[in-house]
Amino acid sequence: QVQLVESGGGLVQPGGSLRLSCAASGFAFSRFPMSWYRQAPGKEREPVATISTTGGSTSYADSVKGRFTISRDNAKNTLYLQMNNLKVEDTAVYYCKGPAHWGQGTQVTVSS
Prior knowledge:
Blueprint: E1 3-7, E2 10-12, E3 18-25, E4 34-39, E5 46-51, E6 58-60, E7 68-73, E8 78-83, E9 92-97, E10 106-110
Parallel strand pairs: 2-10
Antiparallel strand pairs: 1-3, 3-8, 4-5, 4-9, 5-6, 7-8, 9-10
């Protein structure tokens, strides 16, 4: 069955970095665009970044442009999100999204 398993979340100070990973299985990963979403407490889930099948095209929410980088390794069926210069407002549960499925999420907390 389809599985999307996120990892790499944690507690980090403002200005710090984290790298999230999403291991995909059960579908043809390389054939589909992939995305990261996030949901902060009391807020709706929002898109963060999207990447095309080959990785040649990416898009970002304005709030993360210049700080976050989405990438993928189709040979490893893995999606990544490099997050630099993290801010308190980046605190959220981050989700990997495939063509029709969501991962379980990984918590990112930015706090001093």
